[in-house]
Design brief:
The chain is an alpha/beta fold. The protein has 2 domains: 151 residues, Alpha/beta knot; 59 residues, Trp Operon Repressor, Chain A (Orthogonal Bundle), CATH 1.10.1270. Helices cover 34% and strands 19% of the residues. It has a 5-stranded parallel sheet with strand order 2-1-6-5-7. The chain has a two-stranded antiparallel sheet with strand order 3-4. Strands 8-9 form a two-stranded antiparallel ribbon. Strand 1, helix 1 and strand 2 form a beta-alpha-beta unit. Helix 7 crosses helix 8.
């Protein structure tokens, strides 16, 4: 998989992709992450990428030309399955979206700033708009990193144990059950006996019951959503 991220602040994205699982995935050749500076495609003397809104109002708007030039260049080099814009008014990122995207070959993620991008970019280029929550960030870079992380970790071979992702929260519309490690007792709290029993059928049943109970208590909306599918 190849992910191209378009931003005016590439320095914000250097950290998330240079460590841990995302870094190892690139080293293994399982994915490529390319970060592009939109300012490199600005034609004005001062490399402007934003301007005042037509009609007035507070806040600047990202201009069409630099973004269009960069996307046109990338599209001339390869086909893209999705061109995604990270925006608070997009569809809410859920696990099923990450599951879908991890099957694709090439995607572009556009990071907004200021009051967002000129609406014509959204009309001409964007195939999908995604939000990571009902709140506003200073820019789309952190949201892009969240989306990329949620997708890359699902690519076969990225996680050391490929079954791990299948038992994460939100798979099958359930939260994950409680997990424990050594020691078997800590400050008077013991690991449930069933997890020490070695009986994998009982353990699996216990985990299913705990996942269901935790979901009922904390996110009952997930169960309602699952029933509607």
């Amino acid at each position: 998989m190849r992910i191209d991220i378009l931003t005016i602040l590439p320095e914000l994205l250097s950290g998330p992709f240079s460590a841990s699982i995302l870094h190892r995935a690139q080293q293994k050749g399982l994915c490529e992450v390319h970060i592009h500076n939109i300012r490199d495609y600005a034609t004005s003397k001062h490399k402007n990428v934003d301007d005042y809104q037509y009609g007035g109002g507070a806040g600047m708007v990202m201009m069409c030309e630099p973004i269009a030039s960069l996307i046109d260049k990338l599209k001339a080099e390869r086909d893209y399955d999705e061109i995604i814009y990270m925006t608070p008014d997009g569809e809410l990122l859920e696990q099923n979206i990450s599951n879908q995207l991890c099957l694709l070959k090439n995607i572009i993620i556009l990071c907004g700033h200021y009051k967002g991008v000129d609406e014509r970019i959204r009309q001409l280029y964007i195939t999908r708009e995604i939000s990571i929550g009902s709140y506003v960030l200073s820019g789309g870079e952190l949201a892009a990193a969240v989306l990329a992380d949620s997708v890359i970790r699902l690519i076969p071979g990225v996680l050391n144990d490929e079954t791990s992702a299948l038992t994460d929260s939100f798979q099958d519309n359930l939260l994950s059950p409680p997990v424990y490690t050594r020691p078997p007792e800590f400050r008077g709290l013991k690991v449930p006996e069933v997890l020490l029993s070695g009986d994998f059928n009982k353990i699996e049943k216990y985990r299913e019951e705990q996942a269901l109970e935790r979901t009922k208590q904390r996110r009952p909306d997930l169960l309602e959503h699952g029933e509607g599918n």
